Amino acid sequence: MNYIRNTKALQEQGLISADDTDLLNRVAEKFQISLSPEVIKNIAEPEIRQQYLPTKEELEIQEEELNDPIGDEKFTPVKGITHRYPDRVLLKPLHTCNVYCRFCFRREKVGQADEILKQDELENALNYIRERQEVWEVILTGGDPLSLSADKLASILDQLEAIDHVKVIRIHTRIPLVAPEKISDELLKVLDREKALYMILHCNSHKELSDNVCFGIKKLSRAGIPLLSQSVLLKNINDSVEKLEKLFRSLVAIRVRPYYLHHPDLAQGTSHFRVSLEKGRQVTSELRKSLSGIAQPLYVLDVPGGLGKVPAGKEFIQAKDDKTWKIQTIHDTFVDYQDYL
Ligand SMILES: *Cc1c(COP(=O)(O)O)cnc(C)c1O
Ligand code: SF4
């Protein structure tokens, strides 16, 4: 089985109808399509299909939806680096992923031109880190850093390890969920490091945890890599107590500690995935009653405009009226947040 990267192949596989092809071609002009063999194998599951199969709803761009929903641009001192919090930076060596999730908060960026940092750009980004003693942690993200060749990834990790003040390396990835065959002995060797290397797996439904996927994740955990997860709260995919409970229990049972549950960002053409803050709070507080503490991620909202993530509970966010919320940011300032539902 091969990757599917266009509407023609989707139609050939019987995943979309000929009638829809014109509209979906318009979607594809704006947002890339990619489904991996592992995803295609499980595409009959609605929770998987909705994450990867393009739909005409994506053409409905709402006024409030943003090109840069979490405001990364302001915090990009050099290409490939996002530095919002003092002690940690994002390093984005590439903008491509093996799959393209329909709700991606970086969908304006991923899969577009300028896909991989050029050698001198990467060097500049690494120099930025070298010159800043306060950078304690480097978070490799993108794109999917595990889409890099083993050599390239090894070279980046070697260079990061050589920076004395960088004590922790974190990799955010979806590869173990969508391309488990990539967890090879060669990759495990590249990931075997002296410094602490954490991996955060992006997983939104227990349906993603097929036998193949669990096998790959077990290899990572046997290799001694601490594994955490992040999930996005998505309408119809996981926005119920039952579904989230199943997801988090399944993760903990394979030694993955749920870390964040993200409130969906205001990315373009994603309104059909959106869940209200009210609903998100209701399901997460319900979970508090029934679910083991080690299976509870923190529910967070990334405040538009680059103001950072805040816990979505009552401590930091209070209702002003039906749809407006008052948020206390990480800078202890207050901003209004609109729930567009
Ligand atoms: C999310 C994010 C991080 C990581 O935040 P943690 O709360 O440490 O997981 C770091 N930098 C940027 C710019 C981010 O958006
Ligand atoms: S894997 Fe992550 S960065 Fe890539 S398309 Fe999906 S959500 Fe976006």
TrEMBL record:
Assigned keywords, A-Z: 4Fe-4S, Iron, Iron-sulfur, Isomerase, Metal-binding, Pyridoxal phosphate, S-adenosyl-L-methionine
Upper taxonomic lineage: Bacteria, Pseudomonadati, Lentisphaerota, Lentisphaeria, Lentisphaerales
Entry's family note: Belongs to the radical SAM superfamily. KamA family.
Entry keyword 4Fe-4S: yes
Record domain WAC: where: 322-341
N6-(pyridoxal phosphate)lysine: residues bearing it: K309
Co-factor requirement: pyridoxal 5'-phosphate; [4Fe-4S] cluster
Molecular function terms from GO: 4 iron, 4 sulfur cluster binding; isomerase activity; metal ion binding
Protein name according to UniProt: Lysine 2,3-aminomutase
Binding positions for [4Fe-4S] cluster per the UniProt entry: C97, C101, C104
Boundaries of every Radical SAM core domain copy: 83-295
